Amino acid sequence: MAVVTLQNIVKHYESGGAPAVDDVSFTVEDGEFMVLLGPSGCGKSTTLRMVAGLESITSGRLAIDHQLMNAVPAKNRDIAMVFQSYALYPHMSVRDNLGFGLKRRHTNRRLVRQRVEEVAASIGLTAYLDRKPHALSGGQRQRVALGRAIVRDPKVFLFDEPLSNLDAALRVSTRAELVRLHRELSATMIYVTHDQVEAMTMGDRVCIMEHGRVAQIGTPMEVYLNPANAFVAAFLGNPPMNLMPATADGGAVLLGGRRVAAVAAEGDVLFGIRPEDLTPTDDARAAVISGRVASLEPLGAETLIHVDRGDSTVIVRGPRVPSARLDEPIHLRADPGMIRLFDAATGEAIRLPEEAMT
Amino acid sequence: MAIPRDMNAPATALTDVPPARDHANPRSAIAAFLTPALLIYAAFTALPVARTFFNSVHLVVPNRPDEWVGFTHYAELWTDKIFWKAVHNTLTWAVAAPILEVTIATLLALCLYAKVPFARFLRVAWFTPVLMSYVVVGILWMWILNYDWGALNEILRGIGLGGLAQPWLGHPATALPSLIGVTTWMWTGFNMVVILAAMSSLPSEVLEAAELDNCGWFAKLWFVILPLIRPTLLNLVILSFIGKMKIFDLVWVTTRGNPLWSTETVSTYVYKRAFQWSEFDLGYPSTIAVVWFVIVLAGVLLLTAIFRQRDRIEY
Amino acid sequence: MAFASDRTAVASRPRISTAALRSAALILFIALYTAFAAGPFVWVASMSLRTTTEINADHYAFPWPMHFEKFAVAWTESNYDTYFFNSAAVVLAAVAILTVVGGMAAHCFARYRFPLKGVVYFLIFSTIIFPPQVTVIGLFQLMVDYGLYNSRIGLVLVYVAIQLPITIYILEAFFARIPGDLFDAARIDGYSEWAIFWKISLPVALPAISTTIILNTILLWNEFLYAVVLITDDDKRTLPLGVLRFMGDQLEDVGMIATGLMIAIVPVVLIYVFFSERLIQGMTAGAVK
């Protein structure tokens, strides 16, 4: 199918203003499902729209299958896009919506009809072919939008938050359907979302963006386990990674006066640990963190324990019925392999030696 | 255009990337979409206005080159009694008519807002007069205002006020008020529909809140409804003002400015001076038009400024 | 007024009489105004079916017997067929051009960003408040220069020009509400900007388009000033000019003039009967904010 290459892509809306997308480079391999993830305003949608040809590229290069695309208009890029609002043509039936793009490319009406019906059958829309979009449910509209992309058999599929207008249950099932679709079509897909669950469950790789820049690219597990910087650490996970100010003296990290990790760095650092990597312990001396239980949030499968350690709060993922009691002191042990350190000034991750210590 | 085959070739310089094209705003398409409208605008609106301004400082006589006369036309205008009479008439019209129209229209809209029976039908019926051309309306009202058998005089005689019957359009004192009445008849329904639409789109919570605050109907009207629809009312006043400043057809069909210039408007005067009085000079009427243009512009700006200022105070 | 009347009637017994009085006054006011607004039409319609002799006997009698043949007489004995045809042709052509040209410009203003957009929009839109006097003299001279004076084609172009700002204004407001994703989807589906205008913008904006079509039809059907300045030949006159001329010819023949008036009114009334809501929408579109 297709390889999509972005090289130093920059987007300025107004000359002189801050760039919406700033020096973004990555390659989406043939058949890969790449997720662009980030908070709103991070430039992920703009990046996608530049790939689509809906926005011009201020500088940098965009290539599909090694062919420079910067100046190629959207209609000649052989891509399909699914929009957050679905963007179904309200004055056309489902059949015409699906066939609209094909008709522009093929003059053979019979072939267009055949292809439309084939795709409609594959996504369960056959019964609705003659309805107008306003007579469809949200989920059905979403499927039409999907079908409109599939029917074209494009080189690249682009998705711009396609699930965010669905209700929770439908979102889960559509997620699974998209994964199945990706496997069947083995097409190159770029998927924009602000929802980290979608990113984790669907992406072959995730590209996390912040302020128009790429914060980290990697497989979902990589970015979750080894965030490249404090932003990714704090953005991923629900609740996200606990980050606490600490200091390094050149040999070890000191958190609240305790040596919690060995590191060659010096100066202010951020000590990071995920909530599931902290466990309550009775042994105050083995603990990394001590504090007082500020609140308990039972979620059914687990209970989140909020620990007040004076200047900051730490969240711990505890069992369904935790032993911790409200307002009582608590000591927490950290899984030494899961401790992450970040430079307090730049936010960049600091590499730890393999054998960390408590 | 050269397409580099290998993206991974050393990208030392980006000079081979063609200049960025705005995909979202393609220049050629914008030009294609806008050009016809701009051409028509230039040829039939902008140029004529410019030509009128040009005329106003020239003597424009057929088969002779235009002669620069500076501001003599403007000086002449200053002492032109008929012009000032026309200005007076038109301004009277443009001030009285909006007040009448919008006030009556508000009352009518309130009636329908109160959900009287047949409200939908009444709304459609009251709107009808504005659909007629001024020519039709003019002829029709010449009959209604006819001295011998016009409906108005017949009604007056019928209710024992026959002494008030008179040739409404033939008397200098009643001609202009009669015509103002005609435009009020024509435009009130229009204003009513707009006001009713504005009232209907008021958030019902506000009215319910007012009710909880123990508002009587008058208090509700005065303190809640009218302030909320004030932008609409302002808009209608300005629209009506502009419309009356332009008025030509109705006067032309009914009185042609008679009797004794009592219904002369600026429009009819310009028309007479340009096309009727066989003076063969288009310069002077153009001067009238230009001066009038400035007055209308000032009026509209003044009206908006007054209302804007009050808006700012309220927020 | 009456929004309280139904409640007070139930809530407080002693005030029933005032409430009843109030609604009686309300109904009287409404009835009077309705007679005032609609009476003139009923009257002219009744006169259009009566001969002048009948009318002179009693101006306000019921039209019986109905002389429908008067319409045929008015149609054939004056140039009414020509006037009617001229009006229809000029209005039809102007409205068609307005819809396409205005639609294109509105699409452009709503869809694209370009330098000086605000200035261009302001220039076009500000002409709505221009008094016609300031254009009409220059226009007269220029139409002579263009060779379009006393020509129906010239009148069509002028009509397009005077209705263009309000048409663009109404359509632009509607186009701007169409989500931009729709156009992006069509672009990706492979359509050119031109095709997108025809296949997406216009069909989706059909309600607004029909509003402007009806509005322009009515206003231009009634237009008088530019027609009287720019047309001189009798066989090129539009209906409003024709009606006035007809009145001059018939002078005291009130019955015949009434018939003539009805011929001018009927098309408008027909449109109104079928599209009253759309028409009201169109006429008031510029005033609602």
UniProtKB/TrEMBL annotation, chain A:
SUPFAM superfamilies: MOP-like, P-loop containing nucleoside triphosphate hydrolases. One of its GO terms (biological process) is carbohydrate transport. GO terms for cellular component: ATP-binding cassette (ABC) transporter complex, substrate-binding subunit-containing. Pfam families: ABC_tran, TOBE_2. It is a peripheral membrane protein. GO terms for molecular function: ABC-type transporter activity; ATP binding; ATP hydrolysis activity. PROSITE patterns: ABC_TRANSPORTER_1 (PS00211), ABC_TRANSPORTER_2 (PS50893). It comes from the Bacteria. Transmembrane segments: none annotated. Keywords: ATP-binding, Nucleotide-binding, Transport. It is found in: Cell inner membrane. The keyword Calcium does not apply. Residues 4-236 form the ABC transporter domain. The keyword Transport applies. Belongs to the ABC transporter superfamily. This is Sn-glycerol-3-phosphate ABC transporter ATP-binding protein UgpC. It comes from Acuticoccus mangrovi. The gene is ugpC.
From TrEMBL, chain B:
Residues 1-20 are annotated as: Disordered. Keywords: Cell membrane, Membrane, Transmembrane, Transmembrane helix, Transport. InterPro entries: ABC_transporter_permease, MetI-like, MetI-like_sf. Pfam families: BPD_transp_1. It is a multi-pass membrane protein. One of its GO terms (cellular component) is plasma membrane. Its main location: membrane. It comes from the Bacteria. GO terms for biological process: transmembrane transport. Residues 87-303 form the ABC transmembrane type-1 domain. The keyword Ribosomal protein does not apply. SUPFAM superfamilies: MetI-like. It is found in: Cell membrane. The chain crosses the membrane at residues 29-50, 91-112, 124-144, 179-200, 221-242, 287-307. Belongs to the binding-protein-dependent transport system permease family. PANTHER family: ABC TRANSPORTER PERMEASE PROTEIN (PTHR30193), INNER MEMBRANE ABC TRANSPORTER PERMEASE PROTEIN YCJO (PTHR30193:SF37). This is Sugar ABC transporter permease. It comes from Acuticoccus mangrovi. The lineage of its organism: Bacteria, Pseudomonadati, Pseudomonadota, Alphaproteobacteria, Hyphomicrobiales.
From TrEMBL, chain C:
GO terms for biological process: transmembrane transport. Gene3D superfamilies: MetI-like (1.10.3720.10). The chain crosses the membrane at residues 21-43, 83-106, 118-144, 156-175, 196-221, 254-275. It comes from the Bacteria. Belongs to the binding-protein-dependent transport system permease family. PANTHER family: ABC TRANSPORTER PERMEASE PROTEIN MG189-RELATED, ABC TRANSPORTER PERMEASE PROTEIN MG189-RELATED-RELATED. This is Carbohydrate ABC transporter permease. It comes from Acuticoccus mangrovi.
